[in-house]
Task: structure prediction
Amino acid sequence: MNPMTAAQRTTPADRPQLGLRERKKIKTREAIRAATYGLIKEQGYDATTIDQIAERAEVSPSTVFRYFPTKEDIVLTDEYDAFLMDELRARPADEPWPQSIRYVMHRALSLGAKDDIEVSRLRSRLTVEVPAVRSRMMESMSVTGRMLCQAIGERTGLDPESVEVRVYAMSLVGGLMEASLYWAERGHTDDFPELIDRTLNVLQHGLPQRNS
Result:
């Protein structure tokens, strides 16, 4: 069976509701993140400790480490990787790949804006300002890239381990990271969805022509 045909039968909205155990896990992760973001806003990244995060989130330090191996992971980790993969798999099988990517990225951006645009700004700023956060981001890119390779393979029939698919996936992930860094470096004055469109345009069409 074609994986994309099967994916279209179950959209993200159609999936069963999460069980109590999973809802509790999500609630705990959100509490840890909220505590971390609040402390960083108050006293800065370096001054914020795991013990402080645990106290504010009303969990033990060991619980924090069980959910997030490092402080950098608390800042960077979210639920969007799985969401993006699910959304890609749910797109119509005959939709051009660039159009699917653009749709899914704007869908994720709209949800992120509803959640908390200030959190997005904080995360991107820390990626620019804190070397440890930026380093961890680079490491996490490979995981996201591998997931994207699988989604591309399912969608296109191409070998997800082929050099072409791997290069495209990592180019996309790296391009999105650069757009986020650019946004933060310029004080978040640019329209971020527009930056994402410009990023996708480069991947789809190459560099723009130089103005004469």
Observations:
- The longest helix spans residues 97-129.
